[in-house]
Amino acid sequence: DARLWQARLAPGATLARPLDADRRYWLQLARGGLDAPRTLVAGDALGFVDEPGVLDLRAGPDGAWLLLFEL
After folding, report:
1. How far apart are CA 28 and CA 40, in angstroms?
2. Which distant-in-sequence residues (6+ apart) come within 8 Å of 1 by Cβ?
3. Whole-prediction pTM
4. β-pairing, 45-49 with 3-9?
5. Which of 24, 34, 40, 63 has its CA 20 to 30 A from that of 14?
6. Are the beta carbons of 49 and 55 closer than 8 angstroms?
7. Does an H or E element contain 66, and which?
8. How far is residue 68's CA from residue 52's CA, in Å, rounded to a whole number?
9. Rounded CA separation 52/33 (Å)
10. Series of mean pLDDT values for 10-residue runs along the chain (71 residues)
């Protein structure tokens, strides 16, 4: 099964999403900027495999529109 979340964050807004180590994740930034485990700009993506814990995100000065796929 797969799940898809989308979020539009205002400038400087934060979002925390728990990660399950038994699942895989794909974070795609559609618009804006995002501070995740590293700084992302529109079009960038990050994949996560075997990573438990919490994914902490903070929108950049232009906000952020992101998609998070759980696989």
Report:
1. 9
2. none
3. 0.91
4. unpaired
5. 24
6. no
7. strand 53-70
8. 15
9. 24
10. 96 96 95 92 95 93 97 95
